[in-house]
Design brief:
With 418 residues, the chain is mostly helical. It has helices at residues 2-12, 18-28, 39-43, 52-68, 80-83, 102-108, 110-116, 121-129, 160-169, 173-193, 197-219, 229-234, 240-243, 246-262, 276-283, 285-288, 293-301, 321-329, 335-358, 364-367; strands spanning 383-384, 390-394, 408-412. Strand 1 (383-384) and strand 2 form a beta hairpin. Helix 8 (121-129) packs across helix 10 and helix 10 packs antiparallel against helix 11.
Length: 418
């Protein structure tokens, strides 16, 4: 018994690995939140009839209800559900996966899409206006009894894709270009400035879908067609912070901490097998890799990000057996999320390259070697498909052919300008 007690005590006093300490420091070193908050705008995005002040009021009221709610039964829904109309969203997912084939789908049945978007004008304006905010951190915090914090419906963000395509089909190409590029800017903001992975991934989906649509629009316009100023901003290369999931991972780690705290509420013998501080330290590298210098350099170079390998049980687990087990169970891979963000940035470079190549005097195959550095990366340089109809680069995220998601990111390359 003395030997067992001594072993347990030694394990409890075992130094926390420096890598774990560094990871915790990265996750806790969040920069100060500055600029305009888009929390109220995104929280109430799906509701009509509110001005900015009313949206802030609704968020404040919902936050109070969350904080003062009964443990285990805190309200997830907004008071806006009972007070304001919500436009029916029926076409959000009927326009191709990630914008692939959206323009063709709308052109095949414009009347159906027009009917689906009746009364959505205010919603589409709100989606475009989301690009004007500096961050989107929601104020809800998890409790030990309520681990899942409230989240807004993000489906309205995807409604604008077919609406922008419809504007072009109906002959209003300037409005289509304006809307598409404004929505690209909104997607760019959400990828790197939301405090959870849902915002980042919806932002990436919005960005990639609208970029596909923009490429299809440009392919049907003269090569030298003038674009609205918002498109110049939308097609600028994404910066490292815009692609980074660091802010989202900090938010995910905070939610994970709330889940871990529930493991402290066991029997009187629980401290023998669980230590919250050590378990948080074991969890930290699973999230902090998105914030370290290596990740930032990989984003700058467009190289795949590397997340740490699962940690084997060490001597410290003798005194933290449950914590080590929880850390092992919760260590799901996060790489696919980073791949999606990088593919979004690559898609924008591809659209910019498409436009540049069409404006050159010589054929695309001859102009490609002169492609500006801002439109390619050392890891993925655009190439023409064998038939010359597409400009393409490998997709980093997993392809899903059954859903129309191919292994290549592609934009059309018309043989001649219309």
């Amino acid at each position: 018994m003395l030997l067992a007690a001594g072993t347990w005590l030694a394990a409890r006093l075992w130094p926390v690995p420096q890598a774990h300490q560094d990871a915790l420091q990265l996750l806790r070193a969040a920069p100060p939140v500055e600029g305009r908050s888009g929390a109220a705008a995104v929280w109430t995005l799906g509701f009509d009839g509110m001005d900015a002040a009313a949206r802030e009021q609704v968020l404040a009221e919902d936050l109070t209800r969350w904080q003062q709610g009964a443990p285990g039964r805190r309200p997830q829904a907004s008071v806006a559900e009972e007070r304001f109309p919500r436009p029916a969203i029926t076409a959000a997912f009927g326009c191709g996966q990630r914008g692939i084939g959206c323009l063709a789908a709308v052109r095949a049945d414009p009347a159906a899409f027009a009917a689906a978007h009746v009364g959505h004008e205010a919603l589409h304006m709100r989606v475009a206006e989301l690009s004007q905010f500096d961050h989107y951190a929601l104020p809800f915090r998890a409790y030990d009894t309520d681990l899942m914090t409230p989240l807004p419906s993000m489906q309205p963000l995807l409604d604008t894709l077919s609406a922008n395509a419809l504007a072009h089909v109906q002959g209003d190409t300037p409005r289509a270009l304006q809307g598409t590029c404004a929505d690209i800017l909104t997607g760019r903001r959400l990828v790197g400035r939301g405090d959870n992975l849902l915002f980042s991934m919806i932002g990436a989906a919005l960005l990639e879908g609208q970029a596909h649509l923009l490429a299809d629009l440009l392919a049907e316009l003269p090569a030298d067609a003038a674009l609205p100023p918002v498109c110049t901003a939308a097609l600028q290369p994404m910066t490292v912070p815009e692609q980074s999931l660091c802010t989202a991972m900090r938010g995910e780690f905070a939610m994970g901490q709330a889940a871990l705290r529930t493991s402290e509420q066991g029997s009187v013998l629980q401290p023998l097998v669980f230590n919250l501080a050590r378990t948080e330290a074991r969890f930290a590298p699973h999230y902090a890799w998105a914030c370290d210098a290596a990740a930032m350099q990989a984003l700058a170079d467009d190289r795949p990000l590397r997340e740490p390998a699962p940690q084997p049980a060490g001597f410290d687990c003798v005194a933290n057996a449950l914590g080590c087990r929880l850390a092992a169970i919760g260590a799901m891979t996060m790489r696919p999320y980073a791949d999606r963000a990088q593919d979004s940035a690559a898609m924008l470079r591809l659209v910019a390259a498409q436009r540049w190549l069409r404006q050159q005097a010589d054929p695309p195959a001859q102009a490609l070697p002169r492609l500006p550095a801002s439109m390619r990366s050392s890891a993925r340089t655009p190439v023409l498909s064998p038939d010359g109809r597409w400009l393409q680069i490998p997709r980093r995220a997993t392809a899903r052919p059954d859903e129309g998601i191919t292994a290549m990111l592609q934009v059309p390359m018309p043989a001649t300008a219309p």
